[in-house]
Amino acid sequence: MTTYRFLTRWRLDAARAAVWKALTEPDDWPLWWRGVEKVELLSAGDASGVGAVRRFTWKSRLPYRLSFDMRSTVVEEPAVLEGEAFGELSGTGRWELVDDAAGTGVTYHWHVRTTKAWMNALAPLLRPAFAWNHDVVMRWGGEGLARKLGCAYRDLSKEEETT
Q1: What is the DSSP string of 45-90?
Q2: Can you tell me whether residue 97 is helix, strand or coil?
Q3: Quick check: 113 pLDDT over 90?
Q4: CB within 8 Å of 147: residues ≥ 6 apart
Q5: Where residue 162 falls among pLDDT bands split at 50, 70, 90?
Q6: Which 3 state secondary structure label does DSSP give 24?
Q7: What percent of the chain has pLDDT over 70?
Q8: What is the mean pLDDT of residues 39-53?
Q9: What's the farthest any 2 CA atoms get from each other in the chain?
Q10: Going from the N-terminus, what domains does the chain have, and what CATH number goes with each?
Q11: Are 50 and 70 in contact (CB under 8 A)?
Q12: Is the separation of the CB atoms in 104 and 98 below 8 Å?
């Protein structure tokens, strides 16, 4: 398996409560997040959402789709969401939300391994393309969330790489 570590940072000119609400309703992501093709609830989890399992199907700029299940492991309203991915990707994802002068700072940590044989076989050649593709899909998410919330959005991910 090939391991990837991605860090995405957004700034949204919206209240943290509104950003939190949108991110904690993943069944609605296909309505505003280009790239999220389908979300299926497999298990509801407890009252806070811990233990909930959903199957996500993603499409991207590159000509393939990925499906994986995500189990919620941490829900600390309104600051932290974390989950464990398994299936065609395996690893962890963690959303962190903070209030800042412009509204809400959002950080997403995505530490995963690919489990598809073709992706692992081609990783030495395609790793940069897979990273670019991830960045595109995450940008679509930030842009879509900003449209949904009717606010300004800024992708800070690349800005921080150059400073």
Answers
A1: -STTSTT-EEEEEEE-SSS-EEEEEEEEEEEETTTEEEEEEEESEE
A2: strand
A3: yes
A4: 32
A5: very low
A6: coil
A7: 97
A8: 97
A9: 45
A10: 2-161 (3.30.530.20)
A11: no
A12: yes
